[in-house]
Amino acid sequence: MREIDAKQITEAVAKLCKDAAYYLPDDVYEALKRGRETEKSPVGCVVLDQIIKNAEIAKAEDRPYCQDTGMTIVFLEVGQDLHITGGLLEDAVNAGIAKGYTEGYLRKSVVSEPLFNRKNTGNNTPGVIYTKIVPGDKLNITVSLKGFGSENKSGIKMLVPADGVEGVKKAVLEIILHASCNPCPPMVVGVGIGGTMDRAALLSKKALLRPTNVRNAKPEYAKLEEELLDLINQTGIGPQLGGTTSALAVNIEWGPTHIAGLPVAVTICCHADRHKHCEL
After folding, report:
1. What pTM, to 2 d.p., does this model score?
2. Considering the domain boundaries, does residue 84 fall inside one?
3. Both 85 and 161 in a single domain?
4. 34 assigned to some structural domain
5. Is residue 267 assigned to a domain?
6. What string of H, E and C letters represents the secondary structure of the chain?
């Protein structure tokens, strides 16, 4: 059985947090540039120019791409033949978040209790951690920095099977139209279909990790992604102040569900779709 020290995990998570905050994924950057080429609104063009320049400055100067450096979501795939020594896995991950946000001078935005006290924890912990046991002896870590301007406009609809594809389209568009320009568009839209209410929401989060230029492997879902993207870009929401580039991509992930159910969750991400991955 392979062993890995918890300190190595902490260091890896700290680096991922900083890299995600500074360096926009290449696919998102290229999607912004393509949006600029096709944008029909003069004001929208100006906004996209500023967004693209901001990404370039952040990368060149190792500065946060956005002042909201998000709540840290960490997806772990732990090989069943891997043994972690020197501490607990979640403790190591949270230590990495604290280290990354402190060393990287990233804004700390997490409060320890959501309703009555709302005291800032001071280091952006705890993160939201999802752990999956997989074959092998490796540890795969994906860190996503989720800003809350867009998170606050996400939503879920509990449909029934009779609602079908058109019902799914209607549900997604209702959430997007309600969000309007508040999530700092152009958006990346993650859609989770199936499972239970909570499972659909998790699927929609995972959808945001897929590159914007990669469609779902199942043709019918890939087609639905393209149709939803077209519908969203017809809303006129545009990049911040109106236009034709309302979204850069719609990514759908799906899962089995109950015979009576059709959950649909939509996680909206702003143009700062920040995430990084490593394997230990």
Report:
1. 0.95
2. yes
3. no
4. no
5. yes
6. CEEEEHHHHHHHHHHHHHHHHHCCCHHHHHHHHHHHHHCCCHHHHHHHHHHHHHHHHHHHHCCCCCCCCCEEEEEEEEECCEEEECCCHHHHHHHHHHHHHHHCCCCCCCECCCCCCCCECCCCCCCEEEEEEECCCCEEEEEEEECHHHHCCCEEEEECHHHHHHHHHHHHHHHHHHHCCCCCCCEEEEEEEEECHHHHHHHHHHHCCCCCCCCCCCHHHHHHHHHHHHHHHCCCCCCCCCCCCCEEEEEEEEEEECCCCEEEEEEEECCCCEEEEEEC
